[in-house]
Amino acid sequence: MGFKDVLKKSFLEGVNVTDFSITSVALTLAVTAALGIYIYLVYRLVSKREFYSKNFNISLVALAMITAAIILSIQSSVVISLGMVGALSIVRFRTAIKDPMDLVFLFWSIAVGIICGAGLYGMALMLSLCVTIVILVLDYMPSANAPMLLVLNAADAKAEDEVTAIVSKYAKYYRVKSRNLTKSGMDMVMELRIKTGEVEMVREINALSDVESVSLLSHDGEATI
């Protein structure tokens, strides 16, 4: 028997679909669904976005189960695996992932589906527990207050000295980001870190005779200690 005959025989043997029992398939999908629901709960716990996407969270559970089903199908036959690769290669995902944590949970869900589809339930459980511990520990680590932006409009450029004196009483750090001088006055943006008393500081600055308007802005960024 030549090499070609051996290769042909092995390929034909791979064409024969391996029978999976209903029990084994149900067990795989049940374990995957349980771990997917676990991922759902962890994502709901650590999500800090103002507009929580429940649809995305549900899709994590469905994605894990679908991935597990694909792995089971690939294991059954060489032909199915080749067809699956060709089918998945034409899929294009154009939805942008804005939050890096969403990408982490997305890959976590896919990994659980792949591992459960391969029958390694213990590894999938250990992976989920370890990822949860890492996320929670790092998420609850203390972080410094994010810098704020003080935006003001003054009728006279001399008001900057008075504003700086007031800011220095309340902020442990401040820096002028931009300064725009015109004939009618001055526009200035200052980055600062407030200890306490944001309202009092804004009121004092607004009470200055040369200050026409003042705004204190914050953002969602975080700065580590």
Major sheet, described briefly? Answer: 4 strands, antiparallel
Strand proportion, as a percent range, falls in 15-25%
Spatial arrangement of strands, main beta sheet? 3-4-2-5
- Written as H for each helix and E for each strand, in order along the chain, the element string is HHHHHHEEHEEHEE
Q: How would you classify the helix and strand content by structural class? A: alpha+beta
Helix content: 55-70%
How many DSSP E strands?
A: 6
Uncertain parts: 221-225
Computed Rg: 29 Å
Distance between the termini: 70 Å
The total number of structural domains is 2
- pLDDT average, as an integer? 78
Give a quick summary of the entry:
With 225 residues, this protein is an alpha+beta fold. The protein folds into 2 domains: 3-139, no CATH class; 144-224, ACT domain (Alpha-Beta Plaits). It is 58% helix and 18% strand.
Q: What features would you describe in this structure?
A:
The chain has helices at residues 3-15, 22-46, 54-76, 78-88, 100-117, 121-139, 159-170, 198-206, and strands at residues 143-144, 148-154, 171-182, 185-194, 211-217, 223-224. With 225 residues, the chain is α+β, with helices and mostly antiparallel strands. The protein has a 4-stranded antiparallel beta sheet. Helix 3 (54-76) runs parallel beside helix 5 (100-117), helix 5 runs antiparallel to helix 6 and helix 7 runs antiparallel to helix 8. The chain is elongated.
